[in-house]
Amino acid sequence: xxxxxxxxxxxxxxxxFFDRWKRKGVVIRxxxxxxxxxxxxEGRRPQPTAGxxxxxxxxxxxxxxxxxxxxxxxxxxxxxKRFIVVDTLGPLLGVLVLxxxxxxxxxxxxxxxxxxxxxxxxxHLFADGGFGGRFVTWATDILKTTVEVVRKKDGQKGxxxxxxxxxxxxxxxxxxAHRRLARDYERGPASSMAFIRWAMIRRLVRGxxxxxxxxxxxxxxAS
Length: 223
Hints:
This protein has about 220 residues and is an alpha/beta fold.
């Protein structure tokens, strides 16, 4: 009844398509096709040669399973961590969701390994200091990929948009503007990654970011 009232099919039908498209890779193909079209419309080649990597820790709801969540002591967040690689325009090149307690320089390796095969033209990435050290060495020696760490300027106070890095920070802001992605509600990381791609598909189709959701004001019913 709720589905009929909202104009949508029953939730089981909607979830069935969501799960089937997730498992068959339909969501990835749709997203990547739209991203390539955007790049061409901007006068770029479909396949990028440079990108930006970063991570974002988000709180996990009670529906997030204990084995797939962790505690990020630096951000004081109990939930999951989203590792993403974007091109220099902002759309996704890759995403990986892990427990929030994982370290950037260690656990971004799986994402970068996937990126190596899915985007063979992109061999230069910009990153923050959390990816420095052995991650940079590993990427250079094993994957022949240059990871250039963009650090804050000496004496910098407060927020300042840093060259190249601001692109991925903007993408993370786009994601959390979606109420479903303000925290992680999914039982499995695969569903979390699918929702992230759906959010980016919406961004690519609309041509502008979604308006940040706000709490609706309740009508004053006092007499």
